[in-house]
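Apologies for my clumsy wording, but are you able to produce some protein sequence, whichever is easiest, and the tokens describing how it folds?
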Amino acid sequence: MPDPVKTPPLFGGVNAAALTAMKQDLSPDVDRMAAHCRWLLGNGCNGLGVLGTTGEANSFGLHERKEILEGLVARGIPAAALMPGTGCASLSDTVELTRHARDAGCRGALLLPPFYYKGVPDDGLFAYFSEVAQRTGGGIALYLYNFPQQSALPFSLALIERLLRAFPGTVRGVKDSSGDYANMQAMVRAFAADDFEVYSGSDEFLQRILSEGGAGCITAAGNANSHWGGIVYARRTGPEADAAQAVLNATRKAATSVPLIAGLREIIARSTGDANWRTIRPPHLPLDREAADKVWAGFEAAGALPLPGLRPIRARAAE
């Protein structure tokens, strides 16, 4: 008997966990962010995870997060390509942001667990996500954000199974930023029959997770290496895919050799000649010169610079 036809993943492929551009007063700079999103979608990205960890979502208030999403859509970034982070410590804020994402036209939202309280059992997380699913009222796929290093609340296979059975078609997938490939592999294998979409949170696992039947990646380093991620997704195997995966591995290593968000801001700032990309909200800080030179040298050594298709702002302005 032939295998049943799988439902295509909504965000299958390479999704950059997009940086949030800011003005000098630390307010969101949606014009610059939209320009960056357009470049990403034109250079290897199938979709964009906005307002996640790399986008500093938890440094923004509820209204700011709404304004950023609305501003991107108003500037022509397709809502269907956006997976905004909507998970908050507050149940009501999570529901409000998830409904807002749905109403803006987004097909999916990425939800952290309620991260303030530690040691929460699976029953508590199940109750929380049950309330989110019911109060949101459908119309948008929910993706679980497994990042125990930050949230201290991992998603067990047993919890995922309960959520899939309770909310079929609504709980659609997971971004696994645990860094534990065996965990990602177990998720793919356990829930393949449910069309559960597993996205690696690390570029280094893209080729491997695709070979397992995973959906792709949602990654921070995608802000600067998505060109090579697109090659891996398109080719999967063979010399070209292997060479592109090697660039992903090297750029990921370079990006994580310094504070990750500030390091990626440095790469984009130097590549565009736009120093405003270094602006970051406290408690995060810009890199000092030594760290800035280190991450740049790492990308150079990986053969990733200049970033394909990204020209300095001064060059574009002269056209």
Remarks:
- Residues 13-307 form a domain with the TIM Barrel fold (CATH 3.20.20.70).
